[in-house]
Amino acid sequence: MTSHTDFDVAIVGAGPVGLAFAGWLANTWGDCANRIAIFDAKPLEASARDPRILALSDATRLRLACLGFPADATPIHHIHVSEQSRFGQVRMKADELGLRALGWTVRYGDLVNCLSTSLERRGVKIFRPANVKYAHRSAVDSLEVLELEDGTEYTVNLRVDAEGGLYGEAGERDQVVDYDQWALVSEVTLQVEPGLLEGGNTLAFERFTSEGPLALLPISTDQQQYSLVWCAPLAQVQKRLACSDDEFSAELRQQFGRRVSIKHIGPRKSFPLGMNWRDKLVQGRRVAIGNAAQILHPVAGQGLNLGLRDAVQLCRSVDPATVAQEHRLTLALNEFEKSRVADRQVVVKMTDWMVKGFSNHNPLLGAGRQMALNVMEFTPPLRKQFAELMLFGLAV
Description:
By secondary structure, the protein is an alpha+beta fold. The chain has helices spanning about 15-30, 45-50, 60-65, 110-120, 235-240, 245-255, 305-315, 320-325, 325-340, 340-360, 365-375, 380-390; strands at about 5-10, 35-40, 55, 75, 80-85, 90-95, 105, 125, 130-135, 145-150, 155-160, 175-190, 205-210, 215-220, 225-230, 260-265, 270-275, 280-285, 285-290, 295.
């Protein structure tokens, strides 16, 4: 068995959060960037081909700009929020906040490829495919020891877990909420009602239905290509997976009425939805960020943005001297954990409320939701405050 003591920081998981954290840390550490390593079980080619659509806030785009951001990302200029069979609605616009865009959509593979290229230029060591089979604390010096499937061991000062997978794939968590919903995802070609579009602005839809939220996110600037995320109980999702494209189009059209017409439906897939939450982010020399710390329902599109804010704050908390000294590292990680409490709790509770509140059929709650949406629509300062919370989170 080969033994190495090469790295100050080992990041397990080369998804967007793990890669971004490695890049930001490398920028901060400069000549010490070669003391950072990242491990992932998948080869880069597999991740780079992943067609999933990610939604990022404009604040996230700005944070990623120093590492590189896909040039073909699609801006979201306007967001239209409404509830089926009710008159309440909210329209949020980027220019009201003085922003270039409210958010951006980008393919998972494009973002991973862009960030991976950035790390190679910065001297970060990337191991992929490299499956971390086992990890333990060294009995000699209390360092973290990572063992790969081939038996190779790497001893590190700090292990950062950044890979959590989807809901249902993650390991044991402190809190688990099953919403009894699945997400059906597809890419669709639409014709949007002209009155909803202004100039060349792109428009995203969030539609709350009796079964669960339905989102349409623009993935091209021609105002026709959209990513669909339709949340509903498993039985309904299975029915929609099995039906013909014409039947599916007709049912989707019913959800939006005359606002959109469907021209083409792409392949349909599904996955379970829920919330996994880790109370403690830190265990000794091991810290969790991103989906390793929390997995959220996609209703508010905040999971990745929250995970990247975890990464930003952790990057601010550790430097080569701190990581090399156990006492200083312990203090720094404890402060990091405290600093993430408020932002995580606000986003998780708000997401949980949106799922449960808009899925509740109580007529009094329905009237309250309609009133809340209308109050926000006609109260620009309140709408601005809500949008800023969604875009930037609590200050980090």
